[in-house]
Amino acid sequence: MAGVRALVRALVEDLDAARAHDPAARSRLEVALAYPGVHALWAHRAAHRLWRNPALRLPARLLSQLARATTGIEIHPGARLGRRLFIDHGMGVVIGETTVVGDDVMLYHGVTLGGRSLNRGKRHPTLGDRVTVGAGAKVLGPVWVGDDAQIGANAVVVKDVPAGAVAVGIPARIRVPNAPVTERSRTEDPSELIEYII
To answer: pLDDT class for 180, splitting at 50, 70, 90?
Structure first.
């Protein structure tokens, strides 16, 4: 009975996270029925539970591929996803096997949390808590994205991003709020930090 209550709490938490991040979400029922990001997340939670048992890895992969076919969101069952993750719109999101995502993270459509190596082991990113990744951004390799960081739309991140920083561009340039002003940063347009965040 305690397990059922915990499951219901987790499902409601996912619904409320979607409503908190999306002003267009009018009710828990609407989110539960019409939000592919939530559907993909729920399928992943079941697939990840299967994945932890080596004998059930094939069913885990099949479930993840079914979720991909129905939602347009591909999450490897080995990925570890935190609480209250919200995937907005979601189409084209890819999350690799060794990815770790913290709590209260928001991903927009077209995000890739992918690898750059064919080696086994940790080859996908780790995102801290309260990270926002803009539409079309690619975070590649075993990089660390610190708590409260923001990745701009279409950025390509291939190195660590400190906590609270903003990463924009291809390859991504890292901007740290309240960092000392240098001659180069004084001549750059500060509005570029805002325009790429979605």
So the answer is: low
